[in-house]
Write a structure and sequence with these properties.
It contains six helices and no strands. The chain is mainly alpha-helical. It has two domains: 3-62, no CATH class; 65-121, no CATH class. Helix 1 packs across helix 2 (14-23) and helix 2 crosses helix 4 (48-62). The longest helix is centred in the last third of the chain and has 19 residues, at 102-120. The protein is elongated, with a radius of gyration of 17 Å.
């Protein structure tokens, strides 16, 4: 669980928490408040009802986050990536509106290089 990633979400991407609350039929203000409290005080300081909301709405955003997968611009069907992002990459993930796993990042870089080379020629 990456509480630094939660702080990043609280500060710069609160809409992610709000969407997670809506997706889980929870009150947005409640989830946002729990996220702020947990980021500053830790999971163990939450009450059982707060832990319920945390586990359902917040934890999936800061633990075992799945790579969104890389799709080449010419491919019509998106490819799913089974990889999980490393915890230490989650702050950067939320700072950059998403990040790829190592494998997808390598493919994206390779495609960008190929496109650049093609455009130069």
């Amino acid at each position: 669980m990456n509480l630094d990633a939660l702080k990043e979400i609280n500060t710069n991407n609160p809409e992610i928490l709000e969407q997670s609350a809506r997706d889980n039929n929870a009150n947005e203000s409640t989830v946002t408040g729990i996220a702020l409290f947990a980021a500053n005080n830790g999971y163990d300081s939450l009450t059982p009802p707060q832990k319920y909301h945390f586990d359902n709405c917040i934890r999936p955003l800061i633990e075992d986050v799945q790579c969104s997968g890389y799709n080449h611009e010419c491919e019509e069907v998106p490819r799913e990536c089974p990889a999980t992002l490393d915890d230490q990459d989650l702050v950067e993930y939320y700072q950059n509106d998403g990040k790829y796993c190592e494998s997808c990042e390598g493919q994206a870089s390779s495609d960008a290089h190929s496109k650049e080379s093609f455009m130069r020629d």
